[in-house]
Amino acid sequence: MTVLTNLAYVKQELEQTCSRIGRQAQEVTLIAVTKSVKTEKALEVLDAGLLHLGENRNEGLLAKYEEIGSRAIWHFIGSLQTRKVKDIINIVDYIHSLDRLSLAAEIQKRATKRIRCFVQVKTSAEEAKQGISPSEALDFIKQLAIYDKIEVVGLMTMAPYTENTSEIRHCFRQLKELQLQVQAQELPHAPCHELSMGMSNDFSIAVEEGATFIRLGTILVK
Ligand SMILES: *Cc1c(COP(=O)(O)O)cnc(C)c1O
């Protein structure tokens, strides 16, 4: 399938979901996750009119950045090892996986400009999922105030991979509730306007629950 064909399907789905719940499709930014495809395919994504690309490993990001450069807006969506921050921090536009103070300190040390960060929250009980627990998230975000290179633009989560849609919805709802709690604090360093949630298999549920960034791999580029 071409990216254009896939994109047409995604857009239709997104528009239907939005009209059903009274949201505007333009409120939702599509991030094309290109982690499992070659640069060629990422270029096809850009030619199809998408601007946001997501990668989850330094190697993939750097290889693609070499050819694409700042034609794209780059999102780092994977778990980020502290010692590898320096290699990518000044080419990415967004980091979706801020989940510990040691990582924040390293970003602060290496970034030459302010980095837009999502705090990753573990809303599901799955062992392997990264992220800070919901009960610790607010405190964690308050502690980020000392790092002037970090702007907490929003929260990010991954729902479990399951057929059980109410379990998925519950994860997204938790993230939304947490966002409201953070926003109520009116923290200058954490406007927290955005919610990064929803992947190929669950993006419609995420949009229903308030996602403003959805991260789509398979459904777009396969
Ligand atoms: C791979 C990945 C995605 C995209 O997954 P698909 O199911 O292929 O859409 C989104 N978010 C993160 C964090 C990922 O690692």
UniProtKB/TrEMBL annotation:
<feature type="modified residue" description="N6-(pyridoxal phosphate)lysine">
    <location>
        <position position="35"/>
    </location>
</feature>
<dbReference type="InterPro" id="IPR001608">
    <property type="entry name" value="Ala_racemase_N"/>
</dbReference>
<dbReference type="Pfam" id="PF01168">
    <property type="entry name" value="Ala_racemase_N"/>
</dbReference>
<dbReference type="InterPro" id="IPR029066">
    <property type="entry name" value="PLP-binding_barrel"/>
</dbReference>
<protein>
    <recommendedName>
        <fullName>Pyridoxal phosphate homeostasis protein</fullName>
    </recommendedName>
</protein>
<dbReference type="InterPro" id="IPR011078">
    <property type="entry name" value="PyrdxlP_homeostasis"/>
</dbReference>
<feature type="domain" description="Alanine racemase N-terminal">
    <location>
        <begin position="13"/>
        <end position="221"/>
    </location>
</feature>
<keyword id="KW-0663">Pyridoxal phosphate</keyword>
<comment type="function">
    <text>Pyridoxal 5'-phosphate (PLP)-binding protein, which is involved in PLP homeostasis.</text>
</comment>
<comment type="similarity">
    <text>Belongs to the pyridoxal phosphate-binding protein YggS/PROSC family.</text>
</comment>
